[in-house]
Amino acid sequence: MRVIVTALAPSHLLCMTPLAWALRSAGHEVLVAGRADVAAMAGRSGLDAVGAGGGGGRRGRPAPAPRVAPPPVHSSARWSDEAADIWGPAAEKWPARVGAVIDDCLTAARYWRADLVLCDPAEFTGLIVGGLLGIPTVMHWWGAPDRMSAEALRRAGPILAPLCAELGLAGGLPRPDLVIDPCPPSLRLPGSHEEPPQPMRFVPSNGAGAVPRWAGAPRGRRRACVSFGAFGGEALANGGELPALLGAVGEALGRDHDVVVPLPPELHRGLGELPPGVRLVAPAPLDSFLHTCDVVVHHGGTGTAMTALTHGLPQIVCGTPHPALAGCGDGLVRRGAAVRVPADGADPVALRAGLRKAADTVSDDERFARNAREAAAENAAQPTPAATVSVLEALVARAA
Question: Which has the minimum average pLDDT: 155-159, 249-253, 364-368?
Answer without folding.
Answer: 249-253
